[in-house]
Amino acid sequence: MTMKIVDIRERTLPIASNIRNSFIDFSKMTLSLVAVITDQERDGRPVVGFGFNSNGRYGQGSLMRERFVPRLMEADPETLHDDSGLIDPHRAWDTMMTNEKPGGHGERSVAVGVLDMALWDLRAKLEERPLFDLLAHRFGSGTPDPRVFVYAAGGYYHPGKGTQGLQDELTSYLDRGYTVVKMKIGGASLAEDLTRIEGALSVLGEGQHLMVDANGRFGAAEALDYLSALQDYDLFWYEEPVDPLDYAGTRAVTGRAGGLPIATGENLFSHWDARNLGLYGGMDPERDYLQFDCALSYGLVEYLRTLEALGELGWSPSRFIPHGGHQMSLNIAAGLGLGGNESYPDLFQPFGGFPDGCVVEDGHITMPELPGIGFEGKSDLAKVCRELLD
Ligand SMILES: O=C([O-])CC(=O)C(=O)O
Ligand SMILES: [Mg+2]
């Protein structure tokens, strides 16, 4: 019997909080949650795939409602299947992108990324296996590594929060098992940021335990002023120093970074942009890190192309540590050998984080064996997902 999608539901939900980075505040931040509902059953219940986007780009319900959902729903169900008779996210991707011109990725890459996440969740649930296991066998080494490095992202600017508040926050991440933490820079003067960084380092101790994130705030000259100061510290990385599409500015920084790793890419949304970063950004595959986030950039179908395009330029998957703190990237990390994943221990809940009972030990988590992406293993998230089905 031909399986088919019977309904796709989406809702915009708030993930607002009273924080800011150097570029935006999160007082009005939203995301799109989507459910792809099929006529298939497992354990007497319909098989449903769920997806959502990560923070930073807002919900994209209108793009989904106007273009991408109708294309999936109007397609002959068989055109979405592979030879196994199950929905193939690659074919669904081609269907969603029908009549979309290349280039200019805007925010459609978010709408497609959300639906792609739900389709991979669905596909792994139909196969009754964890997504990381499916990915390892289909696209990776054949052997997943369920132990994944995670770092704690936070350290935002927050009204009334001084250095003591920052230190308390970062200490609480260490207490929860993280070994590397991230804080924001570029939203204050260089002198103030250096005071914050020194405050952070005083509680983190020796070694590369701190990442700093400028959120693309600087022009090349200011990014270099910061670089000169940051080189005095033993940091894990210096993130998004300049506008993500300013490859010349990125090259100016990477060319002078010496031993300080540079990380960027969370705001590049296609494998073409990623490739251009690799070609023109002066990034060093032995030193630097790439943060493309499938939830914002056309999903895993496109992320596989990104891995391939960067692989041709000498980048190993282990230099990829995605932005976004979602379980989709955790599955990709465990399945395809990425270097780790971001985590927001106190922010953007219930969408971030790990399945219940999954603890961070020595900066790593171990993925449980749950069907699909594993959202059902996180009770607060599962509840929000179920509400979409009511
Ligand atoms: O503050 C943000 O927009 C999120 C971010 O850059 C990150 O997690 O690296
Ligand atoms: Mg960032």
TrEMBL record:
It comes from the Bacteria. Signal peptide: none annotated. InterPro entries: D-tartrate_dehydratase, DgoD-like, Enolase-like_C_sf, Enolase-like_N, Enolase_C-like, Mandelate_racemase_C. SUPFAM superfamilies: Enolase C-terminal domain-like, Enolase N-terminal domain-like. Transmembrane segments: none annotated. Coiled coil: none annotated. Residues 163-260 form the Mandelate racemase/muconate lactonizing enzyme C-terminal domain. This is Mandelate racemase/muconate lactonizing enzyme family protein. It comes from Ornithinimicrobium cryptoxanthini.
